[in-house]
Design goal:
The protein is about 80% helix and about 0% strand. The protein has about 200 residues and is mainly alpha-helical. Helix 2 packs across helix 9 and helix 3 packs parallel to helix 7. It is elongated and about 55 Å long. The two termini are about 35 Å apart.
Length: about 200
């Protein structure tokens, strides 16, 4: 794969990932509530999800994505249910000072976080549209050499966690403004609302 082709993919993918959507909303809402604890597993689910979509496009599964409506709808609503579950937990969380909350009490198990974000990615129309519809216009998958697939996969594995990590760090730093119990309640409910809005955005597409 030429450097021009790889850089073109990186630029288009960067813009697609950086554009706010349900995935970024989920990362920000989670970071506002939990900070960076458990963020690695949560972000890893998004990375694996995008890699699965890329592999599917590379193997010519675009037609399957357009015809297997039930399977993709199931994944979609699994992600929606997960976001609504997180939104409920945030809304029902007790008002406590953020610095008094112990990590084991609020942070989900890494495996649960991973599969939750994975389901969200596989059912989110945004990466689905990018890899199924837009990717073939940026990269000619039919003539792409084997090394090209590894280069694109490597770009995904670098760009996506970098961008989501920046969003997570920014949201975590914003938590210092929410130290009182009253502000903590506001933070929880704002995060829950953002999470629920992300769920609605996925469900409505």
């Amino acid at each position: 794969m030429s450097w021009y082709g790889l850089m073109t993919f990186c630029a288009v993918y960067f813009l697609a990932v950086a554009t706010p959507g349900p995935g970024i909303a989920a990362v920000v809402a989670r970071a506002l509530d939990h900070g960076l604890q458990g963020a690695a597993a949560f972000i890893a689910g998004f990375v694996i999800g995008d890699l699965i979509w890329f592999i599917g496009a590379a193997l010519g599964l675009s037609a399957l994505a357009k015809t297997a409506h039930f399977a993709f709808a199931a994944l979609k609503y699994a992600g929606v249910a997960y976001l609504f579950f997180l939104a409920y937990r945030l809304w029902s969380a007790p008002a406590r000072r953020i610095d008094a909350i112990k990590a084991p009490e609020v942070v989900q198990a890494p495996l649960a976080s991973f599969f939750g974000s994975l389901a969200l990615t596989l059912g989110n129309p945004k990466p689905m549209i990018f890899f199924v519809a837009l990717l073939p216009t940026v990269v000619n998958l039919e003539t792409l050499p084997p090394t090209g697939y590894f280069e694109i996969a490597g770009a995904i594995a670098v760009i996506l966690p970098a961008i989501l990590g920046i969003y997570a760090i920014a949201a975590t730093r914003a938590r210092i403004w929410f130290q009182s119990p009253r502000a903590s309640r506001l933070l929880n409910r704002s995060s829950g609302t953002l999470m629920a809005a992300a769920a609605v955005a996925v469900a409505a597409r």
